Amino acid sequence: MTGTRRPTLGDLADLEAENALLLAIVEATSSGPDVEPLAAAVARLIVEATATDVCFVHVLDDAGRSLTLAGATPPFNGQVGRVRLPIGTGVAGWVAEHGEPAVIVDDKHADPRYVPIAALRGVDYTSMASVPMTSDLAGLVGVLNVHTVVRREFTARDIRLLTSIGRLVAGALHSARLHRRLVARERANERFTEQVIAAQETERRRLAGDIHDGISQRLVSLGYHLDAAAGTLRSDPAYAEQQLILARELADITVDEARIAIGGLRPPVLDDLGLAGGLTSLSRTVPDLDCELILGDERLPEHVEIALYRIAQEALQNVQKHARATRVELRFAVREGTVRLEVSDDGCGFDTGVGGFSGRDLQPEASGYGMRSMTERAELVGGTLTVRSRPGSGTTVTVTVPATPAVPI
Prior knowledge:
19% strand, elongated, His_kinase_dom, kinase, GAF domain-containing sensor histidine kinase
């Protein structure tokens, strides 16, 4: 038969080695649900099987904006979690953006896609290959990079093998990320439950003090004035009338205090006017800021409206306390199955890096209870909270929630 090449013993040996590697990858991906140990195990297997010197496994973050180093072979395993690349930046960022492999044989600095990362010592390595890690279920999950000290022409077979590995690893990494999100959400729910209980107790003590010191005392005084009016109604009508006037004033004050106390427990405006009305009312509580409102009139499930109202309330308080702003813009809309709430100010801002960050990315000491509270409220109704800011350019807090979220536990 012409035109058909019979496989040689070398071909069969290569095929056996390749199958053995893929089997080892499969075993590694079934070892556990954690992202970093999985990525580290895969990196070691790839280096051993492909005769390369170092391997980096970059995983796409939950927001889909950047890659984080999740696994690396020594001496770079200490950089795991510390190296981030925005999509489109560097060779790995280019591969993530375009969804196709990239090979640099030598002279990396001449390639416009290459961005040196001091911590990864790219200058020590001559050649590199980078392939996307994709799965049918999740799409792009990350990028796989291998580097060699000695110049190497990566063959089509090399790229095919790395791509096959990438597809195997992508499914396992996607499952590991889902597991990590579930664990994080469960922990957030536990923390939030603890905070809610503590906040409830604090609120109950405050409310009990307000009722005792305010409403109860005024009702006692109201009773004295009414008794005085009743006792002098015939003997001294003028004095009785004066007591009734004072009683009326006390009654009005007591009603106002009761409304304030009830509003602290649950904003009644949501029952009557929905979230748009609640946000409009909320904007009037910050008279020192010029508030622009762009609000849709859609009604949402009760627990979602309360969560978004409290997030907006906390965000406006943060603007007042920290932003040194003169203007704030409040937006609420429901489009294409997604609820979106935005609070933007023209204040001093701060550095959040490229593309902003999730509220959960902040360290506790940097974020304070307010940011964590807003993030956890968003997550409890199935949403996410992100923050975009730059020094001197204000801050935007954005909450997105599915329009028909599951009822929270």
